[in-house]
Amino acid sequence: MTKKVLLVCGAGASSGFMAAAARKAVKKTGEDIEFKAKSESELMENLNSIDLLLVAPHLKYMIDDVKGACEQAGVKYSLIPQKVYGSLDGPGLVNTAKELLEGGK
Asked: In degrees, to the nearest 5, what angle opens at C-alpha 25 toward C-alphas 89 and 66?
């Protein structure tokens, strides 16, 4: 079954670039993970349709706000590592998502 990952940033632009890099990496590896990006204002309406929420590092303050909603919805969550986000490292994001989906929060 395809795992669904939502990336969230302020307006959805930088997370959109990050999601595109991850989708490109997934095509090469054949992982069954779908990456989408949304703005922080669209988060709650998409929470029940995902398996993992990854928040842009500059929105670190949001983690405490979304923790309860994620736990209630059974969604794992984390910050995107700054090194991965800053370099638009698609393969790195795929690896981060896999680790979190297999264990993590």
From this structure: 60
Cβ-contact 88, 18 below 8 angstroms = yes
Separation CA 82–CA 38 (nearest Å): 18
Q: What digits encode the pLDDT tens for the residues 42-61?
A: 889 999 999 999 999 988 98
Residue type, position 74, single letter: G
Quick one: pLDDT at residue 6?
96
Q: Is the pTM of this model over 0.90?
A: yes
Q: How many whole angstroms separate alpha carbon 66 and alpha carbon 30?
A: 30
Cβ count within 10 A of residue 13: 11
On the question of pLDDT at 104 being above 60, the answer is no
d(CA 16, CA 4): 15
Q: How far is Cα 74 from Cα 49, in angstroms, rounded to an integer?
A: 10
* Tokens encoding 56: 């842009």
